[in-house]
Amino acid sequence: MTFTHPLALWLALLIPVVVFAFFIRRKLRRRRVPALFLWEEALGKTFAKARSFKLRNLLALIVAAVITAALVGSVAEPVAGGSDADATVVVFDNSASMNALEKGDVSRLELARTELERLVYHKSEESEILVITTAGAPTVLAGYTRDAAALRKTAAEIKPTELPSAMPESLELARTFAQTRGKGARVLVLSDGCFDGADGFLSSLHATDSIQFRQIGGPLDNVAVETFQARRSPIGDAAYEATLEVVNYGDKPVSFDVEIGLNDTLVDLVPMTLEPNARDKRTLKYESTEGGTLSARVLIDDAAANRQTQDDVKLADLPDFPRMRVLLYGTVDRFLQAVFAAQPNVETERVSEIPDALEPDALLVICGDVPETLPKGKVALVNPTSGANLFAVGDEEYETAVEPGVVDSPLTCFLNFDGVALRGARDIVPFEGVAVETFARTPEAPAIFAARDPNLPDSPRWVYNFSCTADSIVLRTLFPIVFANLVGAARGIDDSNYASAQVLPDAEFNLRAPADGKTSAALGASGGRITLWRFFAAAAFLLAGLEYYWYCRRRL
Q1: Which of 24, 75, 345, 490 could crosslink 363 through cysteines, CB 3.0-4.6 Å?
Q2: What domains lie within the chain, and their CATH numbers?
Q3: pLDDT one-digit tens code per residue, 14-69
Q4: 422 Cβ neighbours under 8 A, 6+ residues apart
Q5: pLDDT tens digits, residue range 163-203?
Q6: Which residue blocks in 25-141 are alpha helix, DSSP H?
Q7: What is the CA radius of gyration of the chain?
Q8: Contact by Cβ (8 Å): 221, 513
């Protein structure tokens, strides 16, 4: 048995004072009376019961001393059931879901803080407590300490966050710290169970006695934006995709709208209706050259169906639409130049010399004669009349038609070449070792294809085997799409511009209704130890009643 407040044992010095008080006798005073026979008769009966009086006085003295000892023990708050040097690692969940309000408009975070303060209040003088928070990443707020005042200050400084719970990492760290204190150390988890892998964690608690989970809060009706991410189109145009997932954690169907915005500008309003515990995941497609903050916000009128609003908004970072410089070299007509200039975020420039190397955001378009050596970077060859180091080109031009059955590719998507005649086409024969990907072909040779130089694998070459100046009206109608796809493919080479955007940290919420009945056997109020001060107080009250009864009997 240990004492929460051992300094209170100094109050045991009151016991000798109580004993001393019993030996203080009142000094008798002399009084004149008319006769003595009445007093002699009364005193004679008293002296006959002297031994009985002495026994009663001795019992009263013992009872008074025991009452004093019991009151001192109650103030010292004795506890039993644990070692004098036990240790507890507290894993405190302060993630976004702990901001949920329970009955009485008290947040789950405050309820968990009360549990921690209660644990500190009832701990023994020798007990050590270490506190770890889980928001975002495991954080050690207080190392092992016996200082109750410091622990209470630590509990008061835990603030709410809008970050997800890193419970698995925090639990692993807690186990590591617990192992440093031997087998007697325990891990106490204060959480609402709203974290990834909660079901598996709760179901495995029965296998160990060293980890206890205390459920904070109960189930709440809630509509949450579970997932929201955005990315640019992989084909390189101004389009972007947003993946949206909304979950109804309530017990009744809910109808609501999801507002999609870009930099505080309304983009779309998506109506949804979800059954209880149902989720709706969809991919939304929009178009914008502007990047910035993309938001998804739940708009719902039924407050009872959406008890919490912390997870009604989720933000994602949409990358800016990359700019592209198109360098025109050779015999280029104005129509082709205008097609490139009409593309979003494209700057065109005519050059008289081919640079040795191209910037990542540059596309070189060569029309007519092709130099023997092409620069490192992205190059498009339109109506090539010479072969360079990739392929050989025939001398004669001819007119032909595009074969049906075009290979599905970003360069030829949305195009229908049926009945399209090509003028100025030539025979093209790739050299050995040159990889060719055909997007459209004629009976004689490929019409649109990509060639990979084995010496420059990161420098794509696109080839258009037809004349832009002497071609048919039908193909000239397709020019904007053909070369818009070319610009898109040139942009899409840099995959980093089109990877899924990261969710902004200050908008990561994961507020879910905790499952019922998934709480393990929790620690007692004193961290697995039994408080005894109530028993001492009850004993003192009972003995005081008995002493009062004996006192009344002694007066008879």
Answers
A1: 490
A2: 2-24+37-80+534-554 (no CATH), 87-219+513-528 (3.40.50.410), 223-321+500-507 (2.60.40.10), 324-493 (3.40.50.880)
A3: 778 877 777 665 566 777 777 777 766 666 655 444 444 555 566 777 777 788 77
A4: 399, 400, 401, 402, 442, 447, 465, 466, 471, 472, 475
A5: 888 888 898 899 888 888 877 788 999 988 877 666 666 66
A6: 37-48, 50-76, 108-121
A7: 43
A8: yes
